[in-house]
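User: quick one
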Amino acid sequence: MDISEVIKVKRDGGKLSKEEIEWFVSASTSHEIADYQISAMLMAMFINGLDDEETAQLTIAMRDSGEKPDLSSIPGIKVDKHSTGGVGDKTTLSACPLAAACGAKVAKMSGRGLGFTGGTVDKLSAVPGYVTALSEEEFFDVVRKTGISVVSQTKNIAAADKIFYALRDVTATVDSIPLISASIMSKKLALGSDAILLDVKCGEAAFMNDIDEAGKLARTMTEIGARAGKKVVAMITAMDQPLGKAVGNTLEVKEAIEVLKGNGPEDITELSVSIAGMMIYLAEKAESHEQGKAMAAEALKDGRGLMKLKEMIEGQGGDPAVCDDPDAVMGTAKYSRDVVCKTDGYVNKIHGVTIGLASMNAGAGRKKMDDVIDLRAGIILEKKVGDAVSVGNTLCTVFADDETKLEEACRTAESAFVIEECAPEKTPLILDIVTNGSI
Ligand code: URA
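Assistant: Done. Structure below.
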């Protein structure tokens, strides 16, 4: 095929054939066509869009452009979970053990964090001894024995996505619903689980700022799942402030453990139970989401969720005592400083991106992929949206092992809080659930 002719179809607003899409993906992956031609095609797709059929065909071709682990030797229904990204989101550590405790099989590959967003692999690296880079056989073995494993992504999953994403990042073509959907779903489908729970974040600190756009993204991704023959459900959840109170690797592991002990903040506990409930339902261990939630709540109450996390940590070489005494096992940062409130009123907003940047400034996040991070750095929010505050109250505490980083991090963290005279309206955390007829 001639790349100029294929680009022309999309440039002029036409529909690409399956063959043209498959050829474009394979020619990109084999470097048969140049980056500027790939970028031109991505821009044409960005501007003129892709219909559901084209989006699904692009996703499948991208899925097949890299390696695909074969999970079939693990008995039971494997359920994956993906969040589109949120500051303080540690639900992989709190919801997945609850789901596994109720019979779902979780074989999960996660990534490292970059910029203001954290990565589950970094969080798990805060547990002494925990090995995230398991061989495929070791990974499968942990899932067979415990029902859950979370490892770093070692395989070359959806190779075309790496090429496309790098080009989209520098050509202003990231925020396109079909391209985001194909990027996320190609990786999730390649990882081979039977069902996928998507947590589509909506709000100021998310890719999608409003419910209509988040709904479109959720519908596009569930539609791709249905066309690929997988059960895919998307929960649209609010990302108007950080989730829970802890941001930063060690601090987030500790908070996930607190959730599983029944002592976690309300929002992250509610979301963990709801996500786990949906995963249990997708694994066909419950008749409905409601029943799944009740099962997850029971596993939280009787400690089976915490036991599951402990088993996974032990299965991957980590110190299981972290679940009993996180501070003793993971340690705490050398330095901390409180950010103090300067006015009376109510917290109306906590800008999530700003808190993420403050945590990164404290040392918890990377600016470049090869930066070394301070696992114990981060922030604990003492006040959340809706809380009444008075002069002198602590809004949050910033932690770091490097004292020189504290001041700038505190200044940034303080700017994240919006205090007003009146209390804000209470808004729900779970905004919508999109099933697209797949369950
Ligand atoms: N996350 C992804 O993996 N891909 C996108 O395109 C956007 C967010």
